[in-house]
Amino acid sequence: MQPDEGLFTRQLPGDRFREQTDPVLQLENINVSFDGFRALTDLSLAIGVGELRCVIGPNGAGKTTLMDVITGKTRPQSGKALYDQSVDLTTLDPVAIARQGIGRKFQKPTVFEALTVAENLALAMKGDKSVWASLRARMSSEQDDRLNEVLRLLRLDGERYRQAGLLSHGQKQFLEIGMLLVQEPHLLLLDEPAAGMTDAETEYTAELFRTLAGQHSLMVVEHDMGFVETIADRVTVLHQGQVLAEGSLREVQANEQVIEVYLGR
Q: Where in the numbering of this chain does the ABC transporter domain appear (predicted)?
C-alpha cells in the first residue's frame, strides 16, 4: 500500500520495532476503584510518539478502564495522565480531550447508519457543529481533498454515496476508523478493531496500522495474538488492573508470569 502524501509524510523505517521516543502519553500510578473493586492499581504506562502499542490481557484485566481514563470517561482517584508531556488529562472532560488530538474507536462500530459514507466523514470532520449545520455547510477544497484521501485509504471510495447502514461489518469498522482520521488525531485508541472482519480485511487493517504508525501514535487493545504479532512495536500485558509485563510479543510470551496467567499454571 502506498499512502497518499497528504496523509503521511514519513515512511516507516525498515525495522518496525522502533526505538522508544519521547512519550506522547505517560500514565503514572493510576488508581481506579468502583464500589470497592480496584479496576486499576498503581498503573504506569508510557507510549512514545509514533509508536504502535498493543495492550492485551484476560477479561477484567482493566483494558477498557485504561482507555476510559485516557479519554476522560473515568476519572482516577489518584495518579497522573500526561499527554504531550504537559497536558494533565485527569483535569479535562471527554470533549476537551478529543480536541487535544486523542481519538477513540470502540469495539462495535458506531456510525450514522442513515447517512452516506461521505456524510459520516464530513460530520466527523466538522464535529464542532450540529449534525444539520455540518451537513449543510460547504466543505473547503482542503477538507474535500482530505475526505477523498481517507476514502481511498480505507478502500471506501466506491461506497461514497452509499448509506452506512448498508455496509458490511468490516466496512463499518473502516468507516469509523476514517471518522477518526479526518479529525487528524495525534493518538488513536482502538478497541479490537479487527473483530468480526474477514481474513482479507484483517490483513489490510494490519497494513493500514503499520502505515499510520509514525505519523500517529496508536494504542490497540486486542485479543487476536496473530494480529498483535503482525502490528505491534511493543506489547503491554495487563492483569488485575496492573502492568504484568511489557516488551516485544516474543518477550512477553516467554514471561513466566504471563504464561501462568494465560495458561493457569
A: 25-265
